[in-house]
Amino acid sequence: MKRCIVGIRRPGDREPPPGKNTPTVWFPSMATMAAVLSENNQTLLRLIRDKRPKSLTELAELTGRQVPNLSRSLRMMEGYGLVALKKNVREIEPIALATSFQILID
Known about the structure:
three-stranded parallel sheet, Arc Repressor Mutant, subunit A, two-stranded antiparallel ribbon, elongated, alpha/beta
């Protein structure tokens, strides 16, 4: 699991040149970043990393949350590249792609 470098880039901002500390995940605002990287979502990412559930149903049992609620959270995190949702025959397996974050603020 690699560390994810996070940055804020508002619409119309130029993308910085590539480099060692260039963010790999961009958020449009601090508020969005705070919502996506909330304590609950970070806990969810670590749980996925540690327990490796094979389905959303199994993850729901581990968290005590409902599957539709988890699905919404995971799809939002998938959009930012923090989670992969691997489709198996009848199940969707969540895979945490990042659980450690370095936040760069200009």
